[in-house]
Each structure stands twice: as structure tokens, then as C-alpha cells.
Amino acid sequence: MIKNFSIFMTDLWVLTRPYWYSEERWSALSLMTTIVVMDFGLIYLSVVVNDWHRLFFNTLQNYNYPEFAHQLTRFCELATIHILMTICQIYLNQMLEIRWRRWMTGRYLEEWLSGQTYYRLQLTGTDFDNPDQRIAEDVRSFINLTFGLALGFLTNLVTLVSFCSILWGLSGALTLPLGQGGLVIPGYMVWIALAYAAGGTWLNHLTGRPLARLNFEQQHYEADFRFSLMRLRENAEGVALYGGEAQEGRGFAERFSRIVDNWWGIMNCRLRLNCFASTYSQAAIVFPYLVAAPRYFSGAFQLGELMQTASAFGQVQGALSWFINAYVTLAEWRAAVRRLTSFRAAMVEARAAVPSADQGTVPETGILRTAGGDASLHMETLTLSLPQRPAPLLYAELALTPGTAVLISGRSGSGKSTLFRALAGIWPYGRGRIRLPAGARMLFLPQKPYLPIAPLRAVAAYPAPAEQFSDDALRDALAACGVGALGNRLDAIDLWGQRLSPGEQQRLAIARALLNRPDWLFLDEATSACDPETESEVYRLLRDRLPATTVVSIGHRTSLHPFHQRRLMVTPDADGVGHLVPMPG
């Protein structure tokens, strides 16, 4: 248990430290200091109200109406101050929360996007799921719970210290008939409150111990179910064509059954907690009167002192019972911390697959991409492999000269697309070096284009900013690629990946190439969804509009041969390793 607590505190420090040492630390510390000072002010008001209980109830016992009216007026003043301070504190707390969330979300997004980490996470096979939920929901939940629990703990700690001194003075000494002269216990009600809260905390922990694990698993199952629904929406046409509704329904039912089963576990655990907490809190209402009653009936103090004592006892007992009241929240907090730290660890592991940029030697593991040298693209002792298969998949030792269109062919699964990813710098499995032309602008078009949910002008210009191109340039590129009808919808936002046919999507991607005008253009079967005539028109268009661009294509159709001066075939050797072999013609 101590080891788990130590690990949790280390993870918590790793998550919280960066913001409070960031460029925003001074404004954040100023806000936090103001919030804490206001919290101390609210505690001071509670102490004043506790004394007000004595004065108010003494006036009732003494039938002193003028003093009764004065105490009511005084209470209204104290309540007004309390309300104003509470409202201001909540507002400042929310301000600090959103600032921290903005900073922390930006940091996680930067780490997730840098070095294609979002892509490498899919390749590492780590125990990781749903980055969208971790960035969007877990960050928000972590910050909200951290503020609430930290401020609650501080409030209860200061409340405990403040009211312990009051209760110590009010409770007096208790003499137990033990030994000669009896055993005198000074401030006995403080010790009773400590024992009452300690016993309740221990029993509460035993009752709710499984809740943190159940909350963690619930978030995981909820995210999996939501992701499967989103996948159906993204692939609606494919499922409809297959008639796969029954299979999808079975998958949804299976994932949702995990949610239900785990939720029953949470319900049962919370039921036990609620039963204990309700019993504990109800007993706490009358318990201080039972403890203080002997002194009241002995005439040691009046009704006002009894009410003040009961109020002080309630404050001490409530502060000591903070762990009981916050147990469910603590379990949710622990789950959020665990999810964020595992996310960060997964990103670190994914980035570790990238070799350091050592310009002098070829790394023993990992693919090194460097820029410089001549204008050609060189693959030096480049060996590619798969994550689950360390044996070599493809070997390449050649140079691609600028101005020469190259066609790479080969059987499916021979490593052509893997070579495409390695040239793009997103494939970490293998070894060797890729030397890129210095300053060359490269564009890679995969078989299935990525079409963001954005205005069509941004989709067509991607990855360049849409503002970089005029409306006339955008419409001209779309018309040249045979999708000119889209030129009238430049400001329309749609699910373009579902709205357009595969062929239209690929022609829209070719329009991107015309707009971005790269020095090197790589096409991985980027026209496979087009008919042979349209494919030929696309390659003529690229040759006419981008005469200075070097085109490297992956394709199977013989109709592509006339548009490439050099042809390479991936041919396996005796060990099954593919080699790029020049083909005649």
C-alpha cells in the first residue's frame, strides 16, 4: 500500500509540476494565493459564526429580545460577506482551472502531434487506448478534481486546527473512575472526535477500496464503446455494402455489456459506501450533543455554550471525516492520474523508436533521415522490417535522381507501402539511412487521402493554409482534376470523406499537389480508384502542370509505364527479402 501511494504521488508530481514551473507560473501563483487567502477568510467567518451560536442561543434562553434582534442583524451581515467571498472564490477557481487546462491540453497536443507520435502509437503495440478521451476528458477531470481536492484538504486542515482549539477550551476535562483519584482527560471531546473520525475513515477505506480500479476500467469501456460507434459512422458505406449491421450490432452489444457489468460493480461498491456514509453522517448529527450533554445538565454551561460546543465538534469531526466524504472523488482522481500518466508513458515509448540524428554513422536500429549532399535521394543499406516480424522485409540501396519519374511495382505485401512510409519518415522499424535533397519540398499522397472536416478550400489546400491560395487558383486546380463542380462549395463544411467517392477523393488529393507544387511527389497507388483513362489524364496533368517535380509512383497498372522513365520491381530473394530490381523499358 505504501509503495502504491509513493508511485501515485510521483505520478501526481509529474503531472502537476510542469504548469507551476511554466511561463504562466506567476499569474497562476497569484490566483492560487488569492483563492487560498479567501479560503482562510471563509474559515475565519466560520469561527465567528461558531461564537455567534453561543450568543444567539443564550439570548433565546434568557428571553432577551433586543439582543436576539441584534444577533439576527449580525448574522445577515456575516452571511452576506460569506456569500460574496464564496462567489468570488468560485469564479477565481474556475479562471485558474481553465488556464491550467488550456496550458496542459496544449502541451499534450504538442507531444501527441510532434514526430508523428499519434501515428507511432498505433505501431508500438503498447497498452494504450483512446487518446482523444485522455486529452479532452481526462485532462479536464484531472484539473477539476485536483483543485477541488487540494482546496478541500487545505480547508479541512485549517478548519481542524482552528476548531480544535475552540473545542478543547469548551469541552473541559473528563474524569474517569480509574485508579486513585480517577483518570483526568483534558479536552476529552477532541479525543472523542479523533477516535470517531479515525474509525470511520478506516471502515470507509475497507468498504470502497475497489472503486479506483472500477472507475479506471469504466472510463476504458466507455471510450471503447464510443469509439466503435464513431467507426461505424466513418465507415457507414462499407458496412452498408457488406450488410454488416448484425455483426456491428453484436460488437456494440458486447462492448456495452462490459460497461453494464462494470457499472454493476461500481453500483455495489457505492451502495456499500453510501450505506456506511449515511449511517456515519446521521450519527454525527446527534453524537456531539450526547458527548456534551453531561456538562450541560451538570450546569457547567448554558444552552449557547452547548450549541457552540456541538457546532465546534461538528466542524472538527467533519474536517477529520474529509477522507470519508471525498472517497469517491479520490477514486475518480486516481483513475484520471493513472490514465494521463499511462498516456504520457506511451508517447515517450513511441518516440523512443525514433533514432537520434547522428550525421556520421548509420544506426544499428532505426532509420536515419538526413538532408544535404547532392540533389538526389539516396537509400543507403536501407533494410525495412515489420513490428511483429524482426526478419527483413525489403532491402534498398539506390539513388533517385531529380527530374526522373520512377514507378515502383511488386506483389501485394512485398513492402512497397512500407518503403513509402520510410521515405516520409514515419516508419521506425528497420535500419539504414535515407539522404534527402537539401531544401526539397516533398508531398506524399497515400491511396486513401485524408480529408479533414473543414471548409472545402482548407481541404483542397491541405497541408498548406487555405489563405495561401486565391479562389481562382483553387477552382482552377479542382477543375483540372475533374472535380470542378466542387469549386462552388469552397466555404462548405462537410464530411468529405463520406460525401465524395473514392475516385473523387483521389482527384481532390491530386489538386493538392497542383496547388502545393512540391519538388518531389510520392504517390502510393494514389490513382487506383480512378479508371485507366482518368488515371492517364491525371499523369498527363502532373507532367504538364508540374514539369520540375520529380514523381515517384507505386502502382500495378501497365498503363502507368509511359509516364515513368524508370521502373523498379520489388523481387524477393531466396530468403524472402524484397529487393528493388531495375526493369527494362
Distance N to C terminus: 72 Å
Using DSSP, what is the number of strands?
12
How do the SSEs run, as a string of H and E?
A: HHHHHEEHHHHHHHEEEEHEEHHHHEHEEE
**Mean of pLDDT:** 83
Could you tell me the CATH topology label of the largest domain.
ABC transporter transmembrane region fold
CATH architectural group of the largest domain: Up-down Bundle
**Helical residue percent?**
55-70%
Gyration radius, in Å:
35 Å
SSE class: alpha/beta
| Biggest beta sheet attributes | 10 strands, mixed
Characterization of the model:
- With about 575 residues, this protein is α/β, with parallel strands linked by helices.
- The chain has 2 domains: about 350 residues, Up-down Bundle (ABC transporter transmembrane region fold); about 220 residues, P-loop containing nucleotide triphosphate hydrolases (Rossmann fold, 3-Layer(aba) Sandwich).
- Strands 3-7-4-5-12-11-6-10-9-8 form a 10-stranded mixed sheet, with helices on both faces. The chain has a two-stranded antiparallel ribbon with strand order 1-2.
- The longest helix has about 55 residues.
- It is elongated, with a radius of gyration of 35 Å.
- The protein starts with a helix and ends with a strand.
- About 0% of the residues have low confidence.
